[in-house]
Write a structure and sequence with these properties.
Layout (H helix, E strand, L loop, with lengths): L1 H6 L7 E6 L7 H11 L2 E6 L9 H5 L14 H10 L6 H11 L11 H20 L8 H8 L2
Parallel strand pairs: 1-2
Length: 150
């Protein structure tokens, strides 16, 4: 990754470098530190993994990074968002909906029940597969899924 980025730098200008899901690159912390030290740039990294800014990377980039955590909507935010979108729903109806489907913002853009359910399930499976049950985690999928149903 380091070579890939450095090879694209054409002059001494300031560069904005955007990298997504960086936690899947081996030794990404070292590459980021090297790029930052040798290129006039700002680096923006995104990822869904909660361990993204922990450990080695936090040590290497101390004082040079800002973390933004993006969370699902709270119930209150969900209600305000629905009102902004012109959706007519009572707080009681929305509360039941929120308990059943959560506050992932994109799910409010779907109208049909099946589409909402599919989106929420795919998001859940994606988080499970990419962030929780990985080769390194040694978490048993069946046990995890069984315990999350209790």
């Amino acid at each position: 990754m380091n070579k890939y980025v450095i090879d694209r730098i054409k002059d001494d200008g300031r560069y904005l470098i955007f990298l997504d899901e960086i936690q899947h690159v081996r030794s990404f912390e070292k590459a980021l530190s090297s790029i930052r030290a040798t290129v006039n740039c700002s680096i923006f990294i995104t990822g869904s993994n909660s361990k993204l800014l922990s450990g080695k990377m936090a040590t290497l980039l101390v004082g040079r990074c800002i973390e933004f955590r993006i969370m699902p909507f709270s119930f209150s935010e969900s209600y305000e968002y629905c009102k902004m979108q012109g959706k007519e729903i009572s707080p009681d109806e929305l509360f039941i909906d929120y308990i059943n489907r959560g506050g992932l913002p994109l799910r409010f853009s779907f109208e049909r029940e099946g589409d909402i359910k599919k989106y929420v399930e795919q998001t859940y499976q994606g988080i499970l597969d990419k962030d929780i049950i990985t080769d390194k985690s040694k978490i048993n999928r069946q046990k995890f899924e069984r315990s999350s149903m209790l």
